[in-house]
Give the backbone structure.
Amino acid sequence: MEFSSNAIAYLGVVAVRSLGLAALAAAALFVFRLQAAAVRHAVWTVVVAGMLALAAIAPLTPAVPIRVLRAMPAPAAVALSPDYASAVESGGAARRGAAAPATSLPHWRDAAVAVYAVGLLVMLIRLAFGYAFTVRLVRGSRKIERAWAAGIYESGWISVPLTVGWLRPEILLPADWEQWDAAKLEAVLAHERTHVRRADWAISVLAGLNRCVFWFHPLAWWLERRLASLAEQACDDSALLEVATEPYAQALLDMAAAVKTGHGRLVWEAMAMAKASEVRKRIERILDETRQIPKGLTGRRWAALVACSLPLIYLAAALRP
């Protein structure tokens, strides 16, 4: 019973502290007017990492108490007559005795812990199954024997290009890639190679793990979807610094059409170049001539972002109201 109470309290505290981190991140993006997709993606990536860090270090960090409300003065002692005190004590004992059988029933906290454990197990199995399927997909692909195709493979299982792996990333192209014109192939490779440079696959796995741990928390689900969307926008921006706008937009439309006519072939939800629900938004961003295309984050800016976020994550874990 004590373990269940502590577990529920722990999950609740971490969930609330995670909302605090997300609120700080949203406030920073709003105050500093940070609109670049790469920057916003980096900020929300730090929030995901912060949520997992809170779950790991919150019980281990020394408490930093802060006073929220002024302490109430202790009530003055009231002298009771012996007969009245005896009556109160006997009445309380009777009530405790009447309520005693209820404690033998299963406590709601035990049920809540059991539900969380089942949900965590289901989500981890789902994540592991997705990873195993990715491994199978990569092993079933064929290496493209071209001078420009280092780390690039083709697969008949997919309808759109995708990138998998982190330490040894691989770009997978659909089997019909040889029918593409040169401009379309250049646009696709520029986009997917940006995914490789940004390590978006690893960040997607991190967001998936965070969703497993916090499967009950709407923030975890929102962060995973938001990171996937921002990763595509950031890769669009980076690719547009290398290729022309019109061929790139046409390639994106072709990918969206391939999704609809895939006839059951795999569409990778996290790293696919085109998700139908976001094609319009991405096309508008690509064709917006008034928008200045930003560059991606450098290593120094990433280091600065992490350095600024570490004290906030520590305070979120250590503060005790």
Q: What stands out?
A: The radius of gyration is 27 Å. Strands lie at 64-65, 142-143, 152-155, 162-164, 170-174, 319-320.
